[in-house]
């Protein structure tokens, strides 16, 4: 039977690393990673995702459900990847209907990441790309309503009701290369952990603080934030890594999301379950607790002056 594997991310679970590996894969495998539907250099099938979402960015010339139908009609099995793929039933049903028409099994792959770390990473990404200028509290209030954060209510149960197989995999930063390799191997791709080595360093606490406090102004500067922070980080001795979250928000976020994550076995996470559970809901270093706030405020003033903000 033909098969379509739909890797839906979610965002901030290193989806582009998977996309890069599969888009460059040249050996024969049971599943094909098609080259249609790409819209960005990361080689994800975002155009198909846009079509499913009725997003105005959809470009018919890049391929979508029509190309999926052609490939399935030709007898191919496919691996598709985009963190923009919807899991809202009416949207994903459009893709399932095509799979059903050509007798192809549809399986969704979803990576489970600590929601606190993911929310923080989502906000950082939005700030540094100038897409967000609200406060972190306002952002979190909206983001917690995102369907891909409610794993049972919005992901597992609705997809199963549609007859779609859902495979939850763990997102554990320190083990991610191995986890990605094992996932690809399970679908017939030749892969090792070394194939997924990448450099995506976590921002320092000072960088996060600057993103949150002046990120929305950075579009007015001709000097990049990276260059400015690098200029002064060494001077002020800021070298720590940051994966944190404002501590006063943790309890509110936990109330909304905790019951979605508390039983990973029932959810269907098959591997590294205890390792994943150990990453959840920990208060970690945060910019608000930088020991010398006076020094940090001067650091911020230097950055703002240097960037002419």
Q: Report the C-alpha radius of gyration, rounded.
A: 21 Å
Give the integer mean of the pLDDT values.
Answer: 83
User: How much helix is in the residues?
Assistant: 40-55%
Helix and strand pattern: EHHHEHEHHHEHHHHHHH
What proportion strand? 5-15%
Broad structural category: alpha/beta
Give a short overview:
The protein is α/β, with parallel strands linked by helices and about 300 residues long.
Outline the structure in words.
- With 309 residues, the chain is of the alpha/beta class.
- It has a domain at 2-113 and 147-196: Rossmann fold.
- The chain is 46% helix and 8% strand.
- It has 14 helices and 4 strands.
- Helix 10 (225-236) packs antiparallel against helix 14 (293-306).
- It is globular.
- Residues 240-244 and 285-289 have low confidence and may be disordered.
List the helices and strands and how they pair.
Blueprint: E1 2-7, H1 15-23, H2 46-53, H3 65-73, E2 78-81, H4 89-101, E3 104-112, H5 115-128, H6 136-143, H7 151-161, E4 165-170, H8 176-186, H9 205-214, H10 225-236, H11 247-261, H12 264-267, H13 273-277, H14 293-306
Parallel strand pairs: 1-2, 1-3, 3-4
Task: List descriptors.
Rossmann fold, 309 residues, four-stranded parallel sheet, 14 helices, 46% helix
């Amino acid at each position: 039977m033909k098969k379509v594997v739909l890797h839906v991310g979610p965002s901030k679970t290193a989806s582009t690393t998977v996309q890069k590996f599969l888009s460059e894969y040249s050996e024969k495998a049971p599943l094909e990673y098609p080259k249609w539907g790409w819209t960005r250099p990361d080689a994800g099938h975002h155009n198909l995702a846009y079509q499913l979402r009725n997003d105005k960015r959809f470009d018919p010339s890049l391929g979508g459900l029509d190309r999926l139908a052609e490939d399935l009609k030709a007898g191919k099995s496919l691996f598709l990847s985009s963190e923009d793929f919807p899991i809202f039933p009416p949207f994903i049903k459009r893709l399932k209907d095509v799979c059903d028409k050509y007798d192809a099994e549809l399986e969704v792959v979803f990576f489970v990441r600590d929601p606190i770390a993911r929310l923080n990473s989502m906000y950082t990404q939005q700030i540094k790309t100038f897409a967000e200028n609200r406060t972190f509290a306002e952002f979190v209030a909206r983001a917690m309503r995102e369907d891909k954060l409610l794993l049972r209510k919005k992901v597992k149960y609705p997809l199963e009701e549609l007859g779609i197989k859902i495979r939850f995999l763990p997102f554990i930063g320190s083990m991610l290369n191995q986890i990605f390799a094992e996932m690809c191997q399970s679908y017939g791709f030749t892969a090792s952990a070394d194939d997924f080595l990448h450099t995506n360093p976590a921002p320092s606490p000072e960088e996060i603080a600057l993103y949150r406090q002046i990120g929305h102004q950075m579009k007015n500067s001709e000097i990049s934030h990276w260059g400015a922070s690098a200029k002064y980080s060494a001077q002020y001795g800021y070298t720590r890594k940051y994966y944190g979250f404002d501590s006063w928000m943790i309890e509110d976020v936990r109330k909304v999301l905790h019951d979605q994550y508390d039983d990973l076995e029932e959810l269907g996470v098959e591997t590294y379950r205890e390792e994943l559970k150990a990453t959840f809901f920990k208060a970690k270093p945060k910019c608000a607790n930088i020991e010398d706030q006076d020094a940090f405020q001067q650091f911020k003033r230097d950055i703002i002056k240097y960037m002419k903000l």
